[in-house]
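Human
Can I borrow your eye for a moment on a structure tokenisation matter? Give me a protein, with the fold worked out from its sequence. Write it directly below this note and I will take it from there.

Assistant
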Amino acid sequence: MKKFLTYAGTTLGLTAALVLGGGMAASAHDCFNPNRSDQGNAAAGKNSQSWWTLVVEDVVMEGVGMGYTQEQAECILDEYDGPASFTVKVKGANGQDGTLLAHNPNDHLDSDGKGIDLVFSAYGGEIMGAYMACGVEFG
């Protein structure tokens, strides 16, 4: 049950950030490894209690009725030009506030494609651009 609640909290945090357009939420644990293969991500997301695979299509579709329509959701998925999924760190992070890159003064490192990056630093423009192109308003 605890594992389910952790995953549900992560999904809720990332969905809220996507739907509301808020900045990167440290509590959402949006740390991911951009260099891991699809097979590695699948294995980590399936076999680890620390990593969880978030499928972008699932998150977008879960937001239908919470600020946008089914048609807008389909438009968002058509417009989005980023990875289809992210395997994110959901627990056991050895960083400040339980997040790997929280409070790192080297902001350029959170989207450089090396080591650990942050979903919204690396793909926030693509995510927000897709929502805005489909008429989803934030605020």
About this structure: The two ends are 34 Å apart (CA to CA). The longest strand covers residues 51-55. Residues 1-13, 16-28 have pLDDT under 50 and may be disordered. The first helix runs from residue 2 to 20.
